[in-house]
Amino acid sequence: MSPSTTTKDTSTMEEKGEHINGFDPSAAPPFRIADIRAAIPKHCWVKNPWRSMSYVLRDVLVISALLAAAVYLDAWFFWPVYWVAQGTMFWALFVLGHDCGHGSFSDVAILNNVVGHFLHSAILVPYHGWRLSHKTHHQNHGNVDMDESWVPMPEKIYKDLGISTKLLRFTIPFPLFAYPMYLWHRSPGKTGSHFNPYSSLFSPQDRKHVMTSTACWIGMLAFLLYLSFVFGSAITFKLYGVPYLIFVVWLDLVTYLHHHGYERKLPWYRGKEWSYLRGGLTTVDRDYGVFNNIQHDIGTHVIHHLFPQIPHYHLVEATKAAKPVIGKYYREPQKSGPIPIHLIKILVSSLREDHYVSNSGDVVFYQRDPNMFSIRKSE
Ligand SMILES: [Zn+2]
Ligand SMILES: [Zn+2]
To answer: Which residues cross the membrane (predicted)?
Structure first.
């Protein structure tokens, strides 16, 4: 491997995960992606639109029941329960829309797109805009220069960030509310909006799709404004606004933790060292306790990243079948109790440790800035 030598790397060898017990997780694996594919049972690749729709129905029923209970009870003790439960259900809807975006919901493109618009517009996500940038994320996972969302910043970009951006990016709870900002402005060092068909995120043939999704997003916003006008903004905020914020927290927590925070630092690649397989193997599975089922097994991220066409309801089985092939390259998730509180510790320590990567080098690891909030002369 060729870690960077141009900037001072403060990580120890152990932190970098180099050659512990003779295993280097950043080295090219001895197996091919075809070997993993072959180990996954055939039925795991089959998309069943009825089964997919049954999950939509399940989530819509739970959301309606929660809504009815909140309106009926309107009690101080129930509101916090409602907010957490409904925010989690919004997140569950997002995960089903994620399947639509990958085409793993069904083999019928129009069904995927209609259901995807319905699910994502309901939670103020521009379906095609996000679908396209998420595709970029999958196709470039683990690539410092090309990946999308929660990408490590090279030191030169990091050093130019203002204190307020560093605060928002690395201090809890701010990064947990990043998603709406990401939709509008992408990540630091990148430009483009998920709502703008002419954004650099999209190619010219995508413009019509992006326009449709932005129109649906505006329609949903108008609907919420109408509800605020008719029923009052306070009740609309209590019924929709707070669950929306909880959904954003889930989304940021889960998407961050799938690519950050493990006892041995995860490698990131550039240039010739990157490959679809090596990049995909840098992702991390997570155990979310009772939420695994509610959020449609989103924690099975490694196999999802490598094979996004597998429907969510086959990912647990596919992961089990693939593990003997992936061997040590599979990072076993820490077992969770019913509530995944262990993730908070992982998130906090990653945000303290993982600040930037070296400007050069084809295999790099996150480094820590010990003076993150000191005022520099140039600021
Ligand atoms: Zn991912
Ligand atoms: Zn995905």
So the answer is: 55-73, 215-235, 241-258
Q: Cα(260)–Cα(181) distance, rounded to whole angstroms?
A: 20
| 301 CA distance to ligand 2 middle (Å) | 8
Provide the residue ranges of all domains of the chain, joining segments of one domain with +: 13-364
Ligand 1 centroid from CA 141, angstroms: 7
- C-alpha 140 – ligand 2 centre gap (Å): 12
> Contact 84/246 with Cβ under 8 angstroms?
yes
> pTM, whole model, 2 decimals?
0.92
Closest CA to 341 of 266, 265, 290, 284: 290
CA of residue 270 relative to chain centroid, distance: 21
Distance 347 CA to ligand 2 centre (A): 20
Which residues have C-beta within 8 Å of that of residue 347, sequence separation ≥ 6? 172, 253, 256, 257, 261
Å from CA of 308 to ligand 1 middle: 10
Q: Which ligand is nearest to the CA of 102?
A: 2
235 CA distance to ligand 1 middle (Å) = 35
Residue 357 Cα to ligand 2 middle (Å) = 24
How much distance in Å is there from the Cα of 377 to the middle of ligand 2?
A: 42
pLDDT tens digits in sequence order for the chain, 379 residues long: 344 333 334 444 444 545 556 789 999 999 999 999 999 999 999 999 999 999 999 999 999 999 999 999 999 999 999 999 999 999 999 999 999 999 999 999 999 999 999 999 999 999 999 999 999 999 999 999 999 989 999 999 999 998 899 999 999 999 999 999 999 999 877 889 999 999 999 999 999 999 999 999 999 999 999 999 999 999 999 999 999 999 999 999 999 999 998 888 899 999 999 999 999 999 999 999 999 999 999 999 999 999 999 999 999 999 999 999 999 999 999 999 999 999 999 999 999 999 999 999 999 999 999 988 765 544 4
341/16 Cα distance (integer angstroms): 26
Distance 75 CA to ligand 1 centre (A): 38
